Amino acid sequence: MVDIVLGFDFGIKRIGIAMGNTLTGQAQPLTVIKAIDNATRFSTIGKLIDEWRPARLVVGEPRHPDGAEHDMTLRARRFANQLNGRFNLPVELVDERYSSAVIPAKRGEIIDAKAAAIILQQYFDDHANN
Predict the structure, then answer these.
(1) Concatenated DSSP letters of 58-111
(2) pTM given for the model
(3) CB under 8 Å to 127, separation ≥6 — which residues?
């Protein structure tokens, strides 16, 4: 069975979203939500969930390079819990250290969807043999 999976790079100003499936195990950037209010964010996410019908959601969990938690770690976890509560889908957290750092970007380029694709690809790679 092939399952669609949506990946999220959570940020205060933007949320990058990627999609992929369990057959190919390949993630690709999908879109960026630029709204900062929760109602608009979750309305947009709800529309994407209705369109793609994912089996699960993956959220990047930011940490310091040494693995220590910081303010955004807790915010990303809260976002993951909200996704689970609102959409009743399993949500997994993936360590996203360096996800944005490995993306070549031009000044001013919005890379959030690409970062979400790296997070989702990490999830697929980690679960390839499971």
Answers:
(1) EEEE---TTS---HHHHHHHHHHHHHHHHH---EEEEE-TTTTTTS---TT---
(2) 0.90
(3) none
